[in-house]
Amino acid sequence: MAEITGDFIRSNAAFKQIPILTLDKNYYKIFSDEADKPETIKVLEEKVNDLLKKQGQINNDIKEVKKIKSRLIQGVVDDMEQDDTDPKHIKKMNESQKLIQEAKEKIADLEDEALEVPRKLSAANQELLIATIRYCYSRMNSNKEDIHILDKWINDTRVKLKKKLLIKQDKETKNDQMYGCLHDILGQNLMGILDDRNEMQE
Q: Over the stretch 110-166, which tens digit does the pLDDT of each residue have?
C-alpha cells in the first residue's frame, strides 16, 4: 500500500483547487465527534480560520483608511480658498498633507498584505487538507483491518452456529423419536405420570 504523502498531494494540481475546508460543512462531518479530532488538525484549523479573519480585517481596514484619506483630501480642497499666508492655515495644510501621505503608505502596506494573505491562506488550507486526508485514510485502513477480522469471526461463528444448529436438531429429533416410541409402548396415561415425575426432577 503506497503512503499518501504531503509531496504527493502538493504535486497534484487538482488538489490546489480545493475550497477552504473550514467553510465546508462536509469537512465537519468527517469529525462529527470532536473528541476524535487530532490536536494537529485543530491547530491547522485555527491557523486557517485566523487567516480568514485577517483577510476580512485587512479588507475592512483598507476601506476605512481610504475613507479617511478621501475626507482629508476633501478638507484640503475645501481649505484651498483660504489665505495661503496665514501660519495656522499653512500648518493645517501641512498636517493634512502629512496625514494624506501616511494614509497612502498605510493603504499600500495593507494592499501588499492583502495580496500576501491569500497565498498564506491557500498554503495553510493545503496543510489542513494533507493532514485531513492522511487522517481519513489512516482511519479507513484501520477500519478495513478491523472489518476483515470481524468478517472472519462472523464467518467462523456462522459455521459453528450451523454445526450447533445441526446438533440441536439431531437431539430434538432423537428426543421426539424416543418419546414417541415410549408413548406407543406405555400409552398416554403412563407417559403423563412419567412426565410429571420427570419434571419434578428438573
A: 888 889 999 999 999 999 999 999 999 999 999 999 999 999 999 999 999 999 999
List the one residue out of 91, 76, 80 whose CA is nearest residue 68.
Answer: 76
- Cβ-count burial 168-202 (b if 16+ within 10 Å, e if not): eeeeeeeeeeeeeeeeeeeeeeebeeeeeeeeeee
Query: What are the Cα distances from residue 139, in Å, to 18, 28, 37?
Result: 22, 16, 11
- This model's pTM is above 0.85: no
Give tens-digit pLDDT for 76-97.
777 776 656 667 767 777 787 8
